[in-house]
Design goal:
globular, 755 residues, 30 strands, 17% strand, 30% helix
Length: 755
């Protein structure tokens, strides 16, 4: 190629060693831009596509490049054919590990000079976990996240779920510390679970290369190049930003002109003036060919989380995600992966005037099948955090991830505690069973890094006009969702100033602060040491609800320590954009390794912890951790994690919940397996009720597994009475039916005593 500005040919070809980009026909004005750019790139510090050193720097740290290398290492190896992979198997996953500790890297207080991963690999921590009954640890996102601007990295915009690399973030440790964690977990009979994010990345090297139209990188994303003659359709990008969200009018205009598919079914994290649509426009970006381009790209979540395109002809997005998964499983030694944002992997234009089709799209199911199948093929399993309708969860789980997060009943049990009425929870449970979503397929989680979700997607979207029985009448799904949200908001945020609404998604709170609000504490300062026993009792009730049913049980450090929310003033900068979840992510010290620390290594303020560190708790038989260990031993001994839920009967008292299970190991053919009944009181008052179910066998003795007490016998109406104390939960097991001896004389006539 000639360097003469006057001899530039119409069609440009490139030296692939120095300027590896897609050929592009240059317009006359582009030729002028190219001439100016060539003179500008004499400065090696230039951070744009005209500097080969900058382009190569980006390539070296890109996820797509790493995926190419990782894939070649496993390709053609016999290990790729040793495991079944076509069908999800929830119970096989559960048997690997079924009680999980959900970590959050930036909130864990560690010893001075100790990284997050080193802290998780501490023998003392795993000894405590083993004493409690925790068998798995979900590390949370520990790989580099955020973005790149010029030569500098920018911070994460979503708690490290905007991944930009397969490398461990130095803030959390390194690969050696991760591998040691896996080894220590294995020595204690445990497993390690990592994250992949198949729905989006951050604005890292891959996105910057895509903006430059470099090789196959634009194929990673849902991004469309807008020609200069239509740049007037795009908003100006404010100073200091690299993109700007489209408003509804511009979204509609670009859709009508055929550039984008336009409006989607919902706008997650909707915030007026910040995120009004799922589309953003970039500022002008210069590529290695000297062409300046502007793009419009899709982001289901925040602007800094561009969505991955799973059906681009290059299949670049698919390769990137699979490479990230193989790195965690093959190089780091994990046993399983959480799939984040994996319900939005397909998107398609709908009929005129209708939102684009995304949620429940067949491509999402197909892409999830590929990801989960690949993980199973190398011996692992997956779980998905997928807040969709029950039908969509059922259909995706039929071919995709082995387990799904329990968004089905999680809002329901919070609502039951807030109102003292289990009716909505019972409706969610019975609807789930009728839809074909078994509790054994779900990860029943307490608090994690996210908000208390109350989107109630099943009721508010596809079933919004369907009618359901509720409170002695009928109500549509849409009305039901609005009612439940309003009642949760009233109890948890209006009456308590330490929990906050999070956009349209839910409420930012910890489990302990949620309970405190339901018990009438208006301010954090009102929660004195005298309040701890009542909060702990309700916390153990919620634990029993989640642990004493089939499926995985998961809880966090905030649960183990009884952490409250942070005062909003302590995280004012973090919540300024509307992300109120930072109040619930307070720092906590599990082992009391840094009692004087006021913040985590990442700078998160320490939260008030009602229960204290694990060593102190395990020395106190009445503590939360000690009593948790007791109820988890009952869970393990009964094998309820792989049982079958067979009935959610009506109850005699509104605060009462009854779940009936058959301890059959998931084999429905074992009709003679023992029957187990979980009975819970969601109120602060003692209640007397009756347990009645067609699954109960008359004359069967009923035993409390926790106390060993014989609490009665099933009568001929398939019922028995039961007294429950405040927030009490009981794990009851039916014995063999008693056979009454037949005495002809006493049956024929009454026994007469006396003269």
């Amino acid at each position: 190629m000639s360097d003469s500005e006057d001899q530039l040919p119409d069609e440009i070809s490139y030296d692939e060693q120095r300027y590896p980009a897609r050929p592009r026909r240059l317009r006359p004005r582009d030729q002028l831009k190219r001439s100016a750019v060539k003179r500008f790139t004499a400065d090696p510090r230039t951070a744009n596509g005209t500097n080969p050193a900058y382009v190569e720097w980006l390539v070296r740290q890109s996820m797509l490049k790493d995926a190419d290398v990782l894939g070649r290492q496993l390709s053609g190896q016999p290990s790729m054919w040793r495991n079944p992979y076509a069908r999800p198997d929830a119970r096989r996953a559960i048997e690997t590990t079924n009680v999980w500790f959900t970590a959050y890297p930036i909130s864990l207080i560690t010893r001075p000079g100790e990284s997050f991963l080193q802290s998780l690999g501490d023998e003392a921590l795993w000894e405590a976990f083993e004493a409690i009954g925790i068998t798995g640890i979900h590390t949370g996102p520990v790989k580099r996240a955020g973005g790149i601007s010029g030569w500098q990295e920018t911070p994460s915009v979503d708690g490290h779920f905007d991944r930009i690399s397969t490398q461990i973030d130095p803030e959390f440790g390194d690969e050696n510390a991760f591998r040691r964690l896996a080894d220590v977990a294995d020595a204690h009979g445990g497993s390690v679970i990592d994250d992949i994010v198949p729905g989006h990345t951050g604005k890292g090297a891959d996105f910057r290369l895509a903006e430059m139209a470099y090789k196959d990188y634009p194929g990673i994303y849902h991004m469309v190049e807008i020609p200069p003659e239509d740049w007037s359709l795009l908003p100006d990008v404010p100073e200091g930003h690299d993109s700007v969200n489209l408003d509804r009018d511009r979204e509609r205009e670009l859709s009508e002109r055929g550039y984008i598919i336009g409006e989607l079914q919902r706008v997650i994290f909707y915030t007026p003036g910040v995120k009004e649509t799922n589309w953003s426009a970039t500022s002008p970006v210069i590529g290695p060919d000297g062409v300046e381009r502007r793009w419009v790209y899709l982001h289901y979540f925040k602007e800094g989380q561009p969505s991955i395109n799973w059906l681009d002809p290059t299949f670049s997005g698919m390769k990137l995600v699979i490479g990230d998964a193989l790195h965690s499983l093959g190089d780091l030694g994990t046993s399983a992966l959480r799939l984040d944002a994996n319900g939005f992997l397909g998107v398609e234009k709908s009929a005129e005037g209708l939102p684009a089709w995304s949620e429940g799209h067949p491509l999402s199911q197909a892409a999830n099948h590929i990801i989960a199948g690949m993980v199973r093929k190398v011996g692992g399993f997956t779980f998905q955090e997928l807040n969709l309708t029950m039908e969509d969860i059922r259909d995706t789980a039929a071919v995709g991830a082995d387990l799904s997060y329990d968004f089905v009943t999680r809002p329901g049990y919070h609502h039951a505690l807030a109102t003292g009425d289990t009716e909505f929870l019972r409706l969610a449970l019975t609807t789930s069973l009728a839809t074909g979503v078994e509790p054994a397929q779900l990860v029943h989680g307490m608090q994690n890094h996210d908000e208390l979700t109350y989107e109630l997607v099943h009721w508010a979207t596809t079933h919004h006009e369907d009618v359901f029985p509720f409170r002695h009448g009928e109500i549509t799904g849409g009305e039901l969702a609005r009612l439940v949200r309003a009642e949760l908001t009233e109890v948890l945020t209006v009456r308590a100033d330490y929990n906050l609404v999070f956009t349209q998604n839910g409420i930012a709170c910890t489990t302990a602060s949620l309970i405190a609000a339901t018990q009438g504490f208006e301010r954090l300062g009102d929660i004195t040491p005298d309040a701890v026993s009542g909060i702990r009792a309700a916390h153990l009730l919620l634990t029993k609800y989640n642990a004493w049913q089939p499926g995985v049980f998961a809880l966090s450090g905030w649960d183990l320590t009884g952490s409250l929310t942070l005062p909003a003033s302590e995280v004012a900068g973090l919540i300024a954009s509307g992300d109120t979840r930072w109040i619930e992510r307070g720092a906590h010290d599990l082992l009391d390794v840094a009692p004087e620390a006021t913040r985590s290594l990442a700078g998160v303020p320490r939260a008030q912890a009602l229960y204290g560190p694990l060593p102190d708790q395990l020395g106190d038989p009445d503590s939360f951790a000690s009593r948790l260990g007791g109820l988890l031993r009952i869970r393990e001994e009964s094998d309820i994690a792989i049982a079958s839920q067979i009935d959610i009967p009506q109850v005699a008292h509104p605060s009462m919940l009854v779940m009936v299970h058959r301890l059959d190991g998931g084999d429905a053919a074992k009709r003679d397996a023992a029957i187990q009944i979980t009975v819970l009181n969601f109120s602060a008052e003692a209640i007397d009720g009756t347990v009645r179910s067609e699954s109960l066998v008359p004359r069967s003795p009923v035993t409390d597994a926790e106390s060993g007490e014989n609490v009665g016998r099933v009568d001929d109406l398939q019922s028995f009475p039961l007294h429950l104390g405040p927030y009490e939960g009981r794990f009851l097991v039916l014995g063999e039916p008693e056979v009454e001896e037949f005495h002809p004389i006493t049956r024929a006539m009454p026994i007469i005593t006396g003269v």
